[in-house]
Write a structure and sequence with these properties.
This protein is α/β, with parallel strands linked by helices. The chain has one domain: Type I PLP-dependent aspartate aminotransferase-like (Major domain) (Aspartate Aminotransferase, domain 2). It is about 30% helix and about 15% strand. The chain is built from 3 helices and 6 strands. The strands form 2 sheets. The chain has a 4-stranded mixed sheet, covered by helices on one side. Strands 5-6 form a two-stranded antiparallel sheet. Helix 1 links the parallel strand 1 and strand 2. The chain starts with 11 loop residues before the first strand and ends in a 13-residue tail after the last helix. The structure holds pyridoxal-5'-phosphate. The site of pyridoxal-5'-phosphate has 9 residues, from loops. Pyridoxal-5'-phosphate binds next to loops.
Amino acid sequence: MRDYIDENTIGVVAILGSTFIGHFEDVALLKKKELDCLHAERPDLDIPIHVDAASGGFVAPFAFPRLKWDFALSRVVSINVSGHKYGLTYPGLGWIIFRDESILSKDLVFTVDYIGGPPPAFTLNFSRPSAMMVGQYYNFIRLSREGYRNVIHNCLANAKLLLGPSRKAASSCFAAISIFL
Ligand SMILES: Cc1ncc(COP(=O)(O)O)c(C=O)c1O
């Protein structure tokens, strides 16, 4: 890792839930063993972490509540999550949250005087449907933390159930490659 970092590095991305098998990278280890040590050796290299929690952001808090991967780790400054995955809403809702306002460059925020006011916006496009936001809000209220916990535990139980027969058939047809279950 350290060989890839120099004074031009603006951040390191850790993936919480890889696209192919849902693997969680160890964000706490990355912070402590790599970036904290590097900072101790080279005080000029104080590298922040962005966590790509597109898939894992709605899994980790419910399946592994003690796992440290988010703003509890001081180096984590931003996190993206896809609401349309385990947030259980329509495509394509996703968002990014920042540890605090100072992290988001003002150059990325624009304001236009539009229909009665200049709302600051940090976005890549303009008019979009808001159905998924309403859907997400509904799910938050309808399911709450406990509902999401039940859904995720159910998903994991189903995955384990499916894994049994696929392991048996592995020699002939399938190979189970998930390391979680
Ligand atoms: C690790 C990871 N990051 C980002 C994305 C993209 O997320 P979205 O579908 O919300 O654009 C995916 C999609 O599968 C992903 O697996």
